[in-house]
Amino acid sequence: MQDKTHLVDEITGHRRMRRNRKADWTRRLVQESRLTVDDLIWPIFIVPGTNVRDPIPAMPGVDRMSVDVAVEAVREAADLGIPAVATFPNISMELRDETGSHALETDNLINAATRAFKKAVPNIGVITDVALDPFTSHGHDGILRGEEIVNDETVEQVVQAAILQAEAGSDIIAPSEMMDGRIGAIRKGLDAAGFQNVGLMAYATKFSSACYGPYREAISTDGLLKGDKKSYYIDPANGTEAVRDAAHDVEEGADMLMVKPGLPYLDICWRLKEAFGLPTFAYQVSGEYSMIKAGALNGWIDGDRLMMETLLCFKRAGCDGILTYFAVDAARKLAGKT
């Protein structure tokens, strides 16, 4: 038999990587990471009123919705198989003050939305945030005293807000304000109030990022913010500090960890999953969404392909799921409906 060994065989030691890539069926057979609808959490923006669907200019394809409209959107999400939604309110300006006191109103917008969703679509999870930025007149996530965001007073208030959110039916509290000790304090507060089954998804590593601009437009805090949030968000340069921050949340009783933003911090996703083994999530934030949308609308990129590629990369980085404004579009694509 004629020896058909090629120089390439000798160079590679007869190990050719392309053998597993030669056909669609082999590529599917050896695929390491998979994205399914079960990986998707849909963040939605709630506004006062009825029959309101208000497009957000900086986030093409994303609307602010009144509770009644959002109920129907959440029902569609559940029908697509999306496991959970995360709610963010755009509070009327006259209800915002220096301390974010409206967060402590039983029937505020975020709690009203939770009640409506759990009544109309009981099979979908509701994740709520207790940060005060939608409620403050200065746009910060905590209580402002002089020029300082005060830690301990803010923690006391978010514990109260978390209990009210649990009473409204929230399944998971996801505190994003990055105050020291808030995970342990919320856990103790929830347990004392009888909400042992309400989970805590810690914004374990929330970075002081340039990617939040469209979100701040969506909840109408972009023109309110006094100063910046660097005294409580993590410096983008600090990976080890981020892991230490997450370790505190784990010790204090977090059930799940979140990395925010997502794409610029895939290394942190991997490090947290490797270090702690807890369910780990990434938040593909508004700026990430808007960059992809802008590129697609200008014809510079294939928006659908990049949407799916970025979502898949979170799975490769060790994430168990992704909070993403693409959730409904991705769910439809995964179901073969687009």
Give a brief outline of the structure.
The protein has 338 residues and is of the alpha/beta class. The protein has helices at residues 7-12, 24-29, 67-79, 109-120, 151-168, 182-192, 213-218, 239-252, 266-276, 286-297, 303-316, 327-334, and strands at residues 40-47, 53-55, 63-66, 84-89, 125-128, 143-145, 148-150, 172-173, 199-206, 256-260, 280-284, 321-324.
Radius of gyration: 22 Å
User: Which structural class is indicated by helix and strand composition?
Assistant: alpha/beta
Spans of at least 5 consecutive residues whose pLDDT stays below 50 are: none
Helix content: 25-40%
- By CATH reckoning, the class would read Alpha Beta
On the 0-100 scale, what is the average pLDDT? Answer: 96
Question: What is the end-to-end distance?
Answer: 52 Å
Report the CATH architecture.
Alpha-Beta Barrel
Strand order of the largest sheet: 1-4-5-8-9-10-11-12
The backbone outline, from C-alpha atoms, is globular
Give the full name of the CATH homologous superfamily. Aldolase class I
Work out the count of structural domains: 1
Helix tally? 12
Please summarize the sheet with the most strands.
Answer: 8 strands, parallel, barrel
Estimate the strand proportion.
15-25%
What is the element string, with H for helices and E for strands?
Answer: HHEEEHEHEEEHEHEHHEHEHHEH
In the CATH hierarchy, the third-tier topology is known as TIM Barrel
Number-wise, the strands total 12
GO molecular function: porphobilinogen synthase activity; zinc ion binding
Subunit structure: Homooctamer.
GO cellular component, one term: cytosol
Organism: Ectorhizobium quercum
